[in-house]
Design goal:
Layout: H1 2-12, H2 22-34, H3 41-45, H4 55-70, H5 107-126, H6 133-159, E1 183-186, E2 189-193, E3 209-213, E4 216-219, H7 225-233, H8 245-254, E5 268-271, E6 274-277, H9 289-299, H10 306-311, E7 320-326, E8 352-355, E9 372-374, E10 383-384, E11 388-390
Parallel strand pairs: 7-10
Antiparallel strand pairs: 1-4, 2-3, 4-11, 5-6, 7-8, 8-9
Bound molecules: fe (ii) ion.
Length: 392
C-alpha cells in the first residue's frame, strides 16, 4: 500500500528535466526583453485592467520567480515582494489590480535587476545547476508563459488608446485556415491522457490516466472570423436561449455585441499591429468561454471535452481552444511540496481548460497534454473555439 502511494506521488510530481544549458537560459530570458522592443517606459508602466498586468510587472515578476524561488533571495532586492504574484507561502503579494501603481522601481531598475539575477543563475548553471536545475527549468517555462501573457495584456492596454497604436509592424496573428471544416469521428473507447514521456511538464498534466470516451466527432479546425460573423449577424448576442445564465449576465454587463477588438461594423479588428481589416479565414479569437459555448449551441454542436481534445490532438494551434472541462485535478494528482505547490493546484476551481496554443505562444512551449486555464468570462487571451458533437 505504502509503495503504491509512493509511486502515485512520484507520478504526480513534476517531471525531472534533462538539464538547462546556459545558452537556452539566455535565449528564453532575452526573448522576454525582445518583446518590449519599440515600447516606451510609459507603455511598460500602464495597467489596462485589473486582470491584466503592466509590461514592467511581467519583466519584474519573472525575475522575482528566479530570485525568490530558485536563488532563494527574498532579501536581495528591497522591492522584490512587490512582484510576488500569488505565492502566499513566501509573503503577502501586492494587489493585482494595483500593479500599475508601482511607478517605482523604474523600468531601468527592473532591467538592472534582471541582469543581476541572470548573472547569478548563469553562475549556478555553469557549475552544473545542481539541485536547482529543475527549478530553473520551471522558471524558464514560467517565463515563456509570461511572454504570451505580456503580449495579451499589452494588446488589451493599447486597444484602449484612441490613437490605436501599433506596437510592432509584424505582429503575430492567427494564420488563416483555407480548408473548409470537416468532422473527424472517433468511436467509443478507453484513452489515456496526461503527460507521457521524459520531457518537462507541469504538475497539472499528471498523472497519466484512463478516460472513457463516448462516440463523438471533433471539427478539423477552429471556427473562423467569417463563420463567427454569421452568428453575430444572426443576432447571436441578443438571443438568451443560446447563452449560459452567467454568460448572459456577463454579456449584458459588458455590453458584448461581437468579439473583443472587433470594430462596430465588424470589418476590422485591433491587433498588435494596430487596426487591421477583419480576415474571414482567420480563426476567431478573443472569445470568452461563454461566447464559444453560445456559438457552439447556435450551430447545434458543443465544445470538446479535454480528453476528447487530447485524444484527437494535432499540435500547437493558432488560438487556444476552450473545452467544456472544468479545470480540476487529475485522479491521483498531488501538488508539489513547498511554495511551488501554489503554482497550479490552488486554481483548480471556477476555471475552464483551454487546449492547443496560440500564435503568441513561444515555439516549443506547449505539448498535447498542456492544460491552460482561465475563468469563463476571460476574453483578452488569444482564445477561440473548436466544435465537437456527439455521435449516435
Ligand atoms: Fe507568474
Amino acid at each position: 500500500m505504502l509503495a503504491a502511494l509512493r509511486n502515485q506521488a512520484r507520478d504526480a510530481a513534476p517531471r525531472k528535466c534533462e538539464g538547462v544549458s546556459p545558452q537556452r537560459y539566455v535565449a528564453i530570458r532575452s526573448a522576454t526583453v525582445d518583446l518590449c522592443e519599440g515600447l516606451s517606459a510609459d507603455d511598460c508602466q500602464a495597467q489596462g485592467m485589473p486582470d491584466a498586468s503592466p509590461v514592467k510587472w511581467h519583466l519584474a515578476h519573472t525575475t522575482w520567480f528566479f530570485d525568490t524561488l530558485v536563488l532563494g533571495g527574498e532579501a536581495r532586492a528591497p522591492f522584490a515582494s512587490l512582484f510576488n504574484s500569488y505565492y502566499r507561502s513566501v509573503g503577502a503579494p501586492w494587489p493585482r489590480a494595483q500593479r500599475g501603481l508601482l511607478t517605482r522601481p523604474s523600468l531601468d531598475e527592473v532591467l538592472a535587476w534582471r541582469e543581476r539575477v541572470d548573472r547569478d543563475v548563469l553562475a549556478l548553471l555553469e557549475g552544473g545547476g545542481g539541485a536547482a536545475t529543475d527549478h530553473i527549468e520551471l522558471g524558464l517555462q514560467h517565463e515563456q508563459q509570461h511572454q504570451e501573457l505580456l503580449l495579451a495584456d499589452l494588446k488589451h492596454l493599447l486597444s484602449q488608446n484612441p490613437l490605436r497604436p501599433a506596437c510592432r509592424p509584424t505582429a503575430p496573428r492567427p494564420r488563416a485556415e483555407a480548408a473548409p471544416p470537416r468532422w473527424i469521428a472517433r468511436p467509443a473507447g478507453l484513452v489515456e491522457i496526461g503527460h507521457n514521456g521524459d520531457g518537462f511538464c507541469f504538475d497539472n498534466e499528471l498523472p497519466r490516466h484512463r478516460v472513457w470516451l463516448e462516440p463523438h466527432a471533433l471539427a478539423s479546425r477552429p471556427v473562423t472570423n467569417g463563420e463567427f460573423l454569421e452568428f453575430v449577424r444572426d443576432g447571436g448576442y441578443r438571443n438568451p436561449l443560446l447563452w449560459l445564465a452567467d454568460g448572459w449576465e456577463a454579456a449584458q454587463a459588458g455590453g458584448w455585441q461581437r468579439p473583443l477588438y472587433w470594430s462596430a461594423a465588424c470589418d476590422s479588428a485591433f491587433t498588435l499591429g494596430g487596426d487591421q481589416p477583419l480576415r474571414p479565414d482567420e480563426p476567431a479569437c478573443h472569445l470568452s468561454y461563454y461566447e464559444a459555448d453560445a456559438y457552439a449551441r447556435w450551430v447545434g454542436a458543443r465544445l470538446p471535452r479535454e480528453a476528447e481534445w487530447e485524444a484527437g490532438a494535432a499540435s500547437h494551434g493558432e488560438v487556444w481552444e476552450w473545452t467544456a472541462s472544468a479545470y480540476a485535478a487529475y485522479p491521483g494528482y498531488r501538488a508539489p511540496a513547498g511554495p511551488l505547490g501554489e503554482y497550479n493546484g490552488k486554481f483548480m476551481c471556477n476555471q475552464l481548460v483551454l487546449r492547443g496554443g496560440s500564435c503568441v505562444t513561444p515555439p516549443g512551449h506547449v505539448r498535447p497534454s498542456y492544460r491552460n486555464f482561465f475563468p469563463p468570462h476571460a476574453r483578452w487571451q488569444f482564445s477561440g473555439v473548436r466544435l465537437a458533437k456527439d455521435l449516435a
